[in-house]
Amino acid sequence: MVMGDMEMKVDVAIIGSGPGGYGAAFRAADLGLDVALIDPRPKPGGVCLHHGCIPSKTYLFLAELILDARRAASMGVTFGEPEIDLAAMQAWKAQVINNMADGLVNLSNKRGVQLVSGTARFEHANAVKIDGAEVSRVRFDHAIIATGSSPVSFPGTAPGAGSRIMSSAGALELSDIPEELFIIGGGYVGLELGTVYAALGSRVSLAEVQDRLLPGVDADLVAPLQHQLSKLFGEIHLNTRITELEELGDRVTVRFATPDGDQTRQFDRVLVAMGREPASRELGLEHTAVAVDERGYIQVDEQQRTAETNIFAVGDVAGGMMLAHTATREGRVAAEVIAGINSSFDVRAIPAVVYTDPQIAWCGLTEEQAKANNIPVAVEKFPWKYSGRANTMGSTEGLTKIIADPEEGRILGIGITGRDTEGLISEGVLAIELGALAEDMALSLHPHPTLSETEGEAAEIFQGSPTHMLPKKRS
């Protein structure tokens, strides 16, 4: 068969096979729809599985082992310096990715989802042309765009193979451990990858244009992490703007403006972690009625429907909180609407996790959002120095906070900094979604000694009767 010699007709064509795309495909297939899942990659998973979430967390787990081994010395257990085998680490990462990708292929096959490996571009509102595949065109009744996002490049640079100026995907190739690494951006990507490289032995310097790390996250949650990173990283420059990057041979010259004046430095590698932008520009949307905003995000309603009523968009390409689990839910909503189910994206508590050391997780209303919108709230915090389990782990810098309605005591938001917050935050999500009161959380038994107790104890403060700290004096 000649490449590009076939056409396909389906009920739903899904462009992009990341969490939003395969989540939509699997739900649509389960609802009896004929589905094609289109992506340039031969196996589903998208950026998240192949170049983002999964490889980064694979390396972060190894970084955590290294950092824990160092901490153990103060507890009476000493390990030798770790021997880093980059080839073995890369092989482990590849094995994790391949196992998960093969699982998605298997699920696709068993559900009857047709995988099309190629690049899709809209011809009109009911067909896409496919490049690089045996299928030349896919006609459909409905389409779901789930193409995700891509890293923002520093102006005048083009990170790629062989370049010492890296995007997050390039950094995850882990081709070497640079002696000196400079990171542009103090968001979660820069901090997570900085943690990996610092644990492996790089001297990491980081610059953030705003006055603290993780802008947008409550400052009290960030403070313990910033304290730890000030010891793990070589330098952290805040209120700092990068003016020029120049790659010369085996070094990168960085010019940046700090509150103390302009500096020019050289580094072995530079990681650009300045955020992400929607992957919407090469889709041929001009051949449809799909509307995008000035930044390229596709405009959708609460059912993920675009201005072209048979075309939907989910995940990063549609904006909002650019998280894999959000994309999956949006994909499922789109599939259900297409199948005739009255579904919508109605989520009160979207959890976010930063997988640094310590981790930070939050959901629902933040304290800073409440202040910015003049929403009256009551905020109580339980410091982990009072937690038995945190003390046994040497993790006493943690913090659990609850944001509640001051009249009813209904939980509106939760934020946690410390170990394993990726799991702890789920109790907060459930509490907010169920409309629970702080009293409900306080009266729910939490096993002792555990980190989950910190949530129960934070809730007990609202009741005026915390167990492991003195109650506040009431006026």
Helices and strands, with pairings:
Blueprint: E1 6-15, H1 19-30, E2 35-39, H2 46-51, H3 53-71, H4 86-111, E3 114-117, E4 119-124, E5 127-131, E6 135-145, E7 149-151, E8 165-166, H5 168-171, E9 180-184, H6 188-200, E10 203-207, H7 219-232, E11 235-237, E12 241-248, E13 251-258, E14 261-267, E15 269-272, E16 276-278, E17 311-313, H8 324-338, E18 352-354, E19 359-364, H9 367-372, E20 378-383, H10 388-393, E21 399-404, E22 411-418, H11 421-433, H12 438-443, H13 453-463
Parallel strand pairs: 1-2, 1-6, 2-3, 6-17, 8-15, 9-10, 9-15, 10-11
Antiparallel strand pairs: 4-5, 5-6, 7-16, 12-13, 13-14, 18-19, 19-22, 20-21, 21-22
Question: Can you summarize this structure?
Answer:
The chain is an alpha/beta fold and 475 residues long. The protein has 13 helices and 22 strands.
Notes on the protein architecture:
By secondary structure, the chain is α/β, with parallel strands linked by helices. The protein folds into three domains: 6-151 and 277-338, 3-Layer(bba) Sandwich (FAD/NAD(P)-binding domain), CATH 3.50.50.60; 165-274, FAD/NAD(P)-binding domain, CATH 3.50.50; 352-463, FAD/NAD-linked reductase, C-terminal dimerisation domain (Enolase-like, domain 1, 2-Layer Sandwich), CATH 3.30.390.30. The protein is 32% helix and 25% strand. Strands 1, 2, 3, 4, 5, 6 and 17 form a seven-stranded mixed beta sheet that branches. β10, α7 (219-232) and β11 (235-237) form a beta-alpha-beta unit. α1 packs parallel to α4 (86-111) and α3 (53-71) packs across α4 (86-111). The longest helix has 26 residues, at 86-111. 45% of the residues are buried.
